Amino acid sequence: MLQTFRLAMKSLAGSKLRSFLTMLGIIIGVAAVIVLVSLMSGMTNYITDSFSDLGTDQISVSVTNTGTRSVTPDDMYEILEDNSGLLLELSPTVQTRGMVKRGADSLSTTSMTGVSEGYLDIGALELSTGRFLTYSDIVSEQKVCVIGSYVAQELFDGEDPLGQTIKLNGQPYTVVGTLAEKADSEEGSSDDCIYLPYSSATKLAMNSDITSYTFIANSEQMDLAKSVLESELYAVFLNEDLYTVTTLSEMLEMVETITGMMTALLVGIAAISLLVAGIGIMNIQLVSVTERTREIGIRKSLGAKQSVILRQFIMEAGMQSSIGGILGIILGSVLTTVASSLIGLDAPPSVQAIIVSFLVSAGIGILFGYMPAKRAARLNPIDALRSE
Amino acid sequence: MGVSEVRREAQPLIDLRDIYKIYQMGDMEVRASDGISLKIWKGEFVSIVGKSGSGKSTMMNIIGCLDVPTSGEYILDGEDVSEMEDDELAEIRNKTIGFVFQQYNLLPRQTLLENVELPLIYAGVGRKERQERAMASLEKVGLQDKWKYLPQQLSGGQQQRVSIARALVGNPSLILADEPTGALDSRTSRDVLDFLKQLNEEGNTVVIITHDTSIAMEAKRVVRIRDGKITFDGDVKEYAANV
Ligand SMILES: Nc1ncnc2c1ncn2[C@@H]1O[C@H](COP(=O)(O)OP(=O)(O)O)[C@@H](O)[C@H]1O
Ligand SMILES: [Mg+2]
Fold it and tell me: Is B157 a member of any domain?
């Protein structure tokens, strides 16, 4: 065994280019699989995590108000009261975007959301300083707002924002609270946000029609809550096309289906790249055995049995594949780490991908080293010797 | 040790009985060996001579268990090898026969020492003993200083001496050389021939194959082949008188 190992080592070292080409196939195959699978599963985790942050007890309602049939926030609050115990909390949501200014500083990516006082619970928000919006802010359309940590950092830079005025699309708003950091206080993150009374937000959006509401329901009875909302809305609209009721867990499922499909696709691509690498390995092994038929003839004429020849070739192929596989794992892990830190994604190299790609490539290397060697080992020594 | 003395032993080392080797080329039949019977005793120095294509290599391959006859019996050192399996033949080759090929057949990527070690590896000899014996064998052909070299760093004559060292290392009963000087110039040919002669004088059985009559006459006994048949078999003096 040790002897065969030494022989194999020697032969590999003796044909550097060929060994390198075989290994290159494996290295690329393994590295590609690791990078693709790891990044994809990091991406999937990121997406599902950011959804589950929001809580799975949310129900989103969006409506299309028409001239004759419409709902107002008051109608929705009535539905909430009629179903207390099943529906726990409600906030209209009015999304707007625009310019946020304080003095010379301005932000343009900030999401401005008009909500009710209940949104503190709904959005699982945490206050850092000051207070959240109140019922009276809503009814009296106060120009007050609560700002995310990114906004506080960019516009106030260490100053206390409470009681200060900022301009939202040119309108002065007073900051009454700041939120605790949720993501990493970066542009476009969930810290880049401002909450204001929905009644004020409709003015800012220059659209008084509120079409989007978020409920929190009893998490044990999500399906019931959903169907109650649907029937209440049907009673108003008499047309299923004018409203949609979506639970967050449904959306999460949808996202998981999509990311699952993407993962399957990428695993497919990875499998193909492994297969291509395998075919490369197979070709080189075939050529190598043909080239080495004379060597096999010499060894046989000196008394090597078929099993000994086979063992030598399998050992060589196995070592080649393992070394290539290990280099591929290293390369794949490094690339994954570099790529994920560049994208800012938490994607550690996938252990499954490492194991599977290593086993598959080593398996292919050994199998395709074995098959032509088996044929050559069976040759009559004199026929093997004659081959040039 | 004279030929007549050697032949007194009851059992020959090589005993070919009515050997045929027939190649089917389309509807043509090539009888490379056409009914060959030949006995060679231990300690003999035999040359097999004949024109190119007469069937010398075919016969040598059968004698060397590199090939099997189409029909006929071959008893080597008391064992019938004509019906043996590939692996059994490998073992016979390893233990009984030392080959010297026209093209040397050294492994190009291994050192001289490693090349000479090969038969011992397949015989399962341990590392230390193997290296000692291989070194001793290289010393015999005067190349012990070059044991680390690769074959292509040597001249043809030196490479042929390495292959002789490899043939000797396993203490075979028979040294079989197919056109051992075919690729060498006359001076190095002389060296190689002298060396084979010396091996025979030390008691080894040597069979060389050649198309060159003058080389054939270096041996003690000459067997001439034509069209796969033996047309002469006798003492070298008798052969010399005959030509
Ligand atoms: N593998 C083979 N297939 C077909 N014919 C062969 C084969 N080997 C040898 N022969 C034929 O057998 C005859 C004897 O060949 P060989 O033993 O090599 O002759 P020599 O060694 O005396 O030159 C030749 O006619 C050759 O063409
Ligand atoms: Mg020949």
Answer: yes
Kindly report the average pLDDT of chain B as a whole number.
Answer: 91
Residue of the CA atom closest to atom 4 of ligand 1: B23
Question: Do both A125 and A180 map to the same domain?
Answer: yes
- Which of A187, A214, A238 terminates a domain? The answer is A238
The share of chain A scoring above pLDDT 90, in percent, equals 29
- Are the beta carbons of B94 and A378 separated by less than 8 Å? no
In a domain, A274, yes or no: yes
Is the CB of residue B130 less than 8 Å away from at least one CB of chain A? no
Q: How far is the CA of B30 from the centre of ligand 1 (A)?
A: 8
* ipTM of model: 0.92
Half-sphere exposure of A240 (CA within 13 A, CB side): 3
Q: How many CA atoms lie within 13 A of A352 on its CB side?
A: 8
Residues of A in contact with B170 (CB under 8 A): 303
Domain assignment of residue B46, given as a range? 14-240
Distance CA A231, CA A246 (A): 14
pTM score over 0.90: no
Mean pLDDT lowest among A376-385, B30-39, B41-50: A376-385
As a whole number of angstroms, the distance between CA B177 and CA B197 comes to: 12
Q: What are the tens digits of pLDDT across the range A171-198? A: 999 999 999 988 777 787 788 999 999 9
Residues A77 and A158 in one domain: yes
Task: Quote the distance between the C-alpha of residue B174 and its chain's center.
Answer: 7
Among residues A192, A214, A238, which one ends one of the domains? A238
A66 part of contact set with chain B, CB < 8 Å: no
